[in-house]
Design goal:
Elements lengths: L9 H11 L2 H24 L4 H4 L4 H10 L1 H18 L11 H14 L3 H22 L15 H33 L1
Length: about 190
């Protein structure tokens, strides 16, 4: 079955090669990934319309950095949050709970799991928890004004379905992007 197939060992090999780089090179790469993520996330506030299509792409830099190294992925995640504090403070509540958390979770899960379904499930759970936290705990209208911030099973089920499909899309995109980026980093 497609979901139970192990994902290529190229990711694990690239992690070993990444660890051979000196610390300065790793810090530079992590910082570049954080800058790209902050710019893409801030685009939602600076460029109404097209910015809302660019903003979800902030997941990619955090995901890729986490695929290479969990500590540097975490560093990029927090550095992006600090950069957003300067660039676009309105995105500070969205990034840590959605796009950033998804990238960090999927990227880190490549270290722990081999099966596609396990990696997708990790991203699904983290994204779902992030959206539910924003919506039901902080009462932040992350899904827009049409969705009520009071708990309902229909809303929660819809969030789960969206989170699963979105995580699946990001896992597949990460594998494609990773193959191209690893040539540059090696």
């Amino acid at each position: 079955m497609y979901f139970l197939k192990p994902i290529s060992d190229e990711v694990r090999l690239s992690q070993l090669i990444f660890n051979r780089h000196n610390k300065t090179m790793k810090l530079i790469l992590g910082s570049i990934f954080a800058c790209i993520a902050a710019i893409l996330q801030a685009a939602g506030g600076y460029l109404p319309g097209i910015g809302y299509f660019l903003s979800p792409l902030a997941t990619a830099p955090i995901l890729l950095c986490s695929m290479f190294s969990i500590p540097f992925g975490v560093m990029s995640y927090f550095l992006t949050i600090m950069l957003l504090f300067i660039l676009q403070p309105t995105e500070l509540i969205v990034f840590p709970f959605t796009t950033g958390l998804l990238g960090l979770g999927i990227g880190a899960s490549f270290h722990f799991f081999r099966k596609r379904l396990s990696i997708i499930a990790t991203g699904t759970i983290l994204l779902m928890l992030g959206i539910i936290s924003l919506l039901f705990i902080f009462h932040f209208p992350v899904l827009g004004p049409a969705v009520s911030d009071s708990f309902s099973f229909l809303t929660t089920g819809s969030i789960f379905l969206f989170a699963f499909l979105y995580s699946w899309l990001w896992v597949e995109m990460a594998l494609i992007i990773f193959k191209r980026v690893k040539m540059i980093i090696h």
